[in-house]
C-alpha cells in the first residue's frame, strides 16, 4: 500500500484492502477526499521535514502536536513503535519473537486461534488465502507468539482484529507482536485478561462521567473502535492511543456521546439504545476524521491522565472488593 495521496477514488477496494460496499457513496467520498488530501499533503511535507530520514524519534511537545494532527501512513509504523515503547522492547529482546514461534505449541491455543482466522476481516483482500502475500499466516504467528508471551491472557476474541490492523499498517510480524505487547501490557493492562478487570474499571469510570451506556461503550473499548468507526478515523485514534495512552478511548467515547446527546436521550428501550449508538458512529461527523480528531480534544474538556489514573485506582479497588471480597490480612 502506498500513501494516501495515491488513492484511486474509483477503486472497489480501499487503500488498506477493505472492499467497499455496493452502496458506497463515491460522490461524497470524492468530495471528502478532495479536502482531506490537501491536509494529508501538507502534513506529509511537515513530517518529512521533522523526521529528515531518522529512524529514531523522541517524545516531545512538538511531536505530540504532530501526532494529534495525524501521522502519514508511511510513517505510522515508525511513530507507533517509538511512542509506545515497542521499538525499545524489540531492540532489548533480539530473537525473542522467533523463539516464541519455535516453542512447543499448545494445541488448545492453536485451535482457538485457527478458529478465528477465517473470521478476521473477510471483507479485506489481504487476508484471503488467494492473496499473495496472504496476511493470515502472519496473523496466526503474531497471535500465537502473543499467547505464549502472555499466558494469563492467551488469546481472546477481538485480539485477531487488533493484530490484523497492526499487520496492515506495519507489514511486519515482529513489529506487530511488540505493538500487541505494548497494548496488552502497558497501554490497556487487564483489558483482555480472563476477568477483564481493566475493561470493567474503565466501564465504571465512564459511568462516573455520567455515561450510563456502558454495555455499548465497552464494545467500543475492547475492539479499539475497529468496525465501529471508519478505518481512517480508527487509525487517527490509534495514532494518539499509542502516543498518549488509553485516555484517548475516553475522549472519543465522550465526544460521540456529547455530540449526539439529543438522539441518545430519545431511546426508550435497549434496542433503541443500540440502534441510536450505531447511528452515531456513522455519517459525516465521524467520516471527516481530521475535524473529528480536533473535536475529541475540545468537546470533552479537560481529561488528564493523572485524573484518570486516580479515578481508576478508586474504582478498581471497589471492583476487586466486590468481586473477590475484602482481603484477609492474616492470609
UniProtKB/TrEMBL annotation:
Where the record annotates domain Rab-GAP TBC, the positions are 70-245
Please indicate which superkingdom the organism of origin belongs to. Eukaryota
For this protein, the record's Gene3D superfamilies field holds:
putative rabgap domain of human tbc1 domain family member 14 like domains, Ypt/Rab-GAP domain of gyp1p, domain 1, Ypt/Rab-GAP domain of gyp1p, domain 3
Please give the start and end residues of each transmembrane region: none
What PROSITE patterns does this protein map onto? TBC_RABGAP
Q: Name one Pfam family in it.
A: RabGAP-TBC
Q: What are the alphabetically sorted keywords of the record?
A: GTPase activation
The cross-references to InterPro entries, in alphabetical order and at most eight, read:
Rab-GAP-TBC_dom, Rab-GAP_TBC_sf, Rab_GAP_TBC_domain
Q: Which GO terms describe its molecular function?
A: GTPase activator activity; small GTPase binding
Biological role stated in the UniProt entry:
May act as a GTPase-activating protein for Rab family protein(s).
Protein name (record):
Growth hormone-regulated TBC protein 1
- The gene is grtp1a
